[in-house]
Amino acid sequence: MSEKTFATAINCMDGRVQLPVIYWMQEKYDTAYIDMITEAGPTKFLLEGSEEQLDAVKTKINISTDNHGSNVVAVVGHHNCAGNPVDRDVKEKQIKESVDLVKSWGFGVEVIGLYVNDQWEVEVVVE
Q1: Nearest-CA neighbor of 108 among 70, 67, 57, 56?
Q2: Phi and psi at residue 70, in whole multiples of 5°?
Q3: Taking the complete model, does pTM exceed 0.90, yes or no?
Q4: Residues 23-51: pLDDT tens digits?
């Protein structure tokens, strides 16, 4: 694992999903560090946030990609999310729409969508 590599996750603030996402991304992308951009219900936040809120997320992604060299951004949704309490099928649709949104921002990096299930395991929704 390279000690100088980063990846980025737009993840929920819920502490239950932090380590599963970190470990999965470290293994999948052979990277040491995961920059976390957290919000309660991140897909809802991305899809319904104000321009100012989205600009703040873009600024954080920019820091991760430009300053840390991250070349992948994961958008994460999860089971039993208090900030976005919707069914899994709705959550997966939101993940896909959020991935499209982040791609549209033109960072030139890979953008993927992940779902953390009721066993706290990471599943790929969009690759």
Answers
A1: 70
A2: -60, 135
A3: yes
A4: 999 999 999 999 999 999 999 999 999 99
